[in-house]
Amino acid sequence: MQTREEKIISGKGIYVDDIVMPNMAYCLFVGSAYAHANIKKIDLQQALSLPGIITILTGKEILEAMNPLPPTFGSSDWLWRTPIVYPLVLDKARFYGEPIAAVIAESPDIASDAANLIDIEYDPLEPVVDLTKAIEPASPLLYEEWGDNIQIHKKVEFGDVQRSFEEADRILKVSWRENRASGFPIEARGCVAFYDKMTEILNVWSSTQSPSRAQYYLAQALKLPMTRVKITMADVGGGFGNKLNWWKETVVALAAILIGRPVKWVESKREFIVTGPHQRDVLWKGEVAIKNDGTILGIRAKLLVDLGVESTCREGAARTLAPACQAIPNAYHLKGLEVDVYGVVTNKSFYGAYRGFGKDKGIKFMERIVQMTARELHMDPVQIRKKNLIQKEEFPYEQITGYVYDSGNYEALLEKALELGNLPYWEKEKQKRREQDRYLGVGIGITVEPAGLGTSTNALTMARVRMTPDGLIEVEAGQPDIGQGSTITRRKIAADILGVKMDHIEVKRDNSDMVFTAVFSSRGAVYPTSALAKAAKLLRQRIISFAADFLNESPSNLDIKESVVYSKTSHKEITFKELARKAYFSPGPIGLGTEKKINHEVVLDVSATWFSPNTARHPKSTYTTFCAGVDLVVLEIDKHTGQVNILKYVHVHDAGTVIDENIVDGQIYGGIMQGIGEALYEELVYNQKGELLSNSYSDYLIPTTLDSPNVIVEHLCTPSPFTELGTKGMGEAPIIGSKVAVINAIEDALSPLGIVVTESPATPERIRGWILESKEEVE
Amino acid sequence: MQVPINTRINQRSYELEVDARTTLLDLLREKLDLKSVHRGCEEGECGACTVLLNGKPVCSCLVLSPQINGAEVLTVEGLMKDGNMHPLMKAFVENYAMQCGYCTPGMVMTSYYLINTWDDFTEEDIRKGLEGNLCRCTGYTNIIRAIREAKKYKDAGYWW
Asked: Which ipTM value was assigned to this complex?
């Protein structure tokens, strides 16, 4: 049997762009040339007369057939304002590239030719591009009916903030800005939609991370019952959260219904970057209450987040503001925390999910605070961390923000990282290299990663495991494989529990039939894994009890190995193949014991659901498990070019019980690389007109082989008491810890010049700027 | 404009009529159904569409079909033998050198060129050689490991 990996590497994977259907038409979106403009006129006449053009849809055409895009997390006006959003502009374009028309043609080339013939007359408005100016009363408005540009405003308070500030020896002022960035996997978004007249089902093959969410969006938008919509996942060329949004696809599906033919849309990389989900873009201003011995008592902060055009309908990343606040205390004791948080709309592409989903922001802010506290007190940041760390005896630990940390040993992780980092050696090197105009710095980032969100649809999960009549095992567990290794891990879990040979297990391709199929929130090792383990254990029991009946043995005498049920005390045994033959065909259910028949337990097919016991008991602990990582980086900066060179990288990780270490390591290596990219190069830059300048891989610089360090990875293990197998969700800690560790190291390297790093990415230009501005620089 | 070309693709000769503006990427994918060649950025930045043209790696999105007249093209499909994976591909799978897999065929083609070109190489050589192939999932660590392991296959005579 060919594995997923063997199939894909041989060129036999089927990504959306590989799907070809008879009579297929092609869709191309035409985007706004202005960031903020009223649309006065759209002239389609010339474009429509081009041979090979089937139809062109604009806001006017879709308005009759569609509902507005449904808010991802429901309409929640007590928390955020929900604008009316259609996937094509109705009257006012609100970001550069916002789709105005969808051209449907016989070929992509014809669609592209027609797009150039569409004549759009704009009435340009002043764009809103600056996060801080957007909230000034004089700012132009994106949604006039709101009266301001604030989609969310909430003040949250945890613990006793007032007391923490009363007990402080000093108050430290901090500021930290993360610029706009996103994932942009190598494959962009796409889908093929086809309305099947026979089954009366609208079928869509998609590069989505969540067929279930896509099914809901599409049914709502096109006014269809969900039963008439089926989404099947193609092979997916990377997600990282960027393929959870699903809105342009609704237009493609509508076109397929209208023209009665399959319609394909695969966007270009530029379209992906210009109209895709954007992330980060936060500005923190805060005050920290500290004691002279290094204790961090409390934090008061104001957080501004640039949500771009909106973040509730194209995708619900407005929600990321909650974990951004709740995750702040990270691995530390903290007495009080207050955050005044604003989600601000601007004329930029929408805010969507990207690895980290908000929790990253709070954690990075905290790790910057640790570094700045150390500097303020002339102490080692390691000392500050040790002074404030939650101790191993304190688990399960109820954080002031309501998260209940399952298990961990943060000090051991930190000690291990320090040991592997060999810091005394690098301290000596620091002095040596200074003489050659090279600044060496050490940075650490600790991350406690909340994983497996337990709110709304995120918490719905189900697994089904069955023995098919040919004696093989089929597994279905709502955890699609987009490259994060869930096919391998699902197979391993089932093989291990059932005692079946690995190649006797088939993992079913994911579609929207199963509740609730999705890759997000690092939920894999929390929700689907636990449901699968539960189902597999139940099927194992049932297999053994069936075998007991057929072999006339006591179930307690039986065990399973290599797809054979055998007696531990006699020579009796039965293969899965023979067991399935007996169970399904002859003698069939009649050959089973009376009790089984009376209880209707006659089929080797089991389903199970699972909900987090942590979230059940502590509703404020919206996440279930809390894996932890320590990133330690040594780097040097060339004073003349501002170039950063990573010399050593250590990552120590605790994800509880690990199912496949290679898969976990793959998540670690990849996450670290993305965090380094974000720390050093990746930035979505808009000009004053609201045009996106970094709209391709030539300008939005994702790391290459030359940027990737040799990472030393070490695992420690504190199993989670809250999941079926002791596993913890993982995959996001590395992108968080790596970014802030690199920033902390850069600041450490530049500390002789008195530089405080207040902004990321720390590009060579920015580093040069800081050096030039610093007092001690002498050219 | 239609242009007649003679070419060899994956060890097979073709006489084709191609539209002059069709890229090699589109020719391979849409006309010849060689779907290992992945559409990435279509501007030569990501390397997902890398194939070997006369033995050297090129981004097929930057080559126009008429340019392969008289030339030889190799894709992952042509690296396979009797349906079996090339030892290099095997090394990728064994070393977890792929996650989403979208960049993988392009990575394989560039790596195949590098391993065949160099008698010996260092990790630094691999990094320089693969700089034009972007991967967003793996951080490159396991890709580099796979190439080193593949070299061992080649040295042991397990190669074609």
From this structure: 0.98
Please check whether residue A238 touches B, CB under 8 A.
yes
Domain with CATH 3.30.365.10 in chain A: 279-455+616-773, 462-514+527-611
The answer to whether residue A18 neighbours chain B at the CB level (below 8 Å) is: yes
Residues A336, A325: Cα–Cα separation, whole Å: 12
- Smallest Cβ distance to B41: which of A237, A269, A705? A269
Last residue within a domain, chosen from B78, B102, B131: B78
B108 interaction partners in chain A (CB closer than 8 Å) = 9
Q: A4-125+189-266 adopts what CATH topology?
A: Aldehyde Oxidoreductase; domain 3 (3.90.1170)
What one-letter code names the amino acid at A481? D
Name every residue whose Cβ is closer than 8 Å to that of residue A575 and which is 6 or more positions away in sequence.
A471, A563, A564, A565
Q: Which of A11, A236, A697 sits opposite B100 (nearest CB)?
A: A236
* CATH 3.90.1170.50 placement within chain A: 4-125+189-266
Determine the Cα–Cα distance for residues A543 and A498; give it in Å rounded to an integer: 9
Scanning B117-146 for CB atoms below 8 A from A yields: 126-128, 130-144
Q: Which residues contact A163 (CB under 8 A, 6 or more apart)?
A: A298, A335, A336
- Cα dist. A745→A388, A670, A703, A776, B101 in Å? 20, 20, 19, 19, 33
Residue B90: CA count within 13 A, CB half-sphere: 16
Taking the domain A279-455+616-773, which CATH number applies? Answer: 3.30.365.10
The SS3 assignment for A124 reads strand
Residue B85 contacts A, CB cutoff 8 Å: yes
CATH number, domain with residue B59: 3.10.20.30
pLDDT at residue number A637:
97
How does pLDDT run across A220-256, given as a tens digit for each residue? 999 999 999 999 999 999 999 999 999 999 999 999 9
Range of the domain at B69: 2-78
Q: Are residues B7 and B61 in the same domain?
A: yes
Pairing mode, strands B2-9 and B72-74: parallel
DSSP label at residue A247: S
Task: State how far the Cα of A739 lies from the Cα of A744, in Å rounded to an integer.
Answer: 9
Chain B hits for A18, CB-CB cut-off 8 Å, are: 35
Q: What is the pTM of this model?
A: 0.97
| Domain presence at residue B134 | yes
Angstrom distance (rounded) from CA A155 to CA A140? 25
- Going by the DSSP 8-state scheme, the letter that residue B31 receives in this structure is I
Tens of pLDDT, residue by residue over A460-512, are: 899 999 999 999 999 999 899 999 999 999 999 999 999 999 999 999 999 99
Q: Do A9 and B104 touch (CB under 8 A)?
A: yes
Work out the number of other CB atoms within 10 angstroms of the CB of residue A449.
29
* Tens-place pLDDT, residues A670-682: 999 999 999 999 9
CA distances from A219 to A57, A66, A204, A244, A516 (A): 19, 10, 12, 16, 16
* B121 lies in some domain: yes
Collect all residues of chain B within an 8 Å Cβ-Cβ radius of residue A665: 96, 141-142
**Cβ pair B114, B121 in contact under 8 A:** yes
The one-character DSSP state at B77 is H
In the CATH scheme, what architecture does the domain A462-514+527-611 have?
2-Layer Sandwich (3.30)
- Between chains, do B141 and A708 touch, taking CB under 8 Å as contact? yes
Number of domains composing chain B: 2
Answer whether residue B160 is part of any domain. no
Q: What pLDDT sits at residue A680?
A: 98
What CATH number is given to the structural domain containing B140?
1.10.150.120
Other C-beta atoms lying within 10 Å of the C-beta of residue A132: 11
Domain stop point among B78, B113, B142? B78
The mean pLDDT value for B8-34 works out to 97
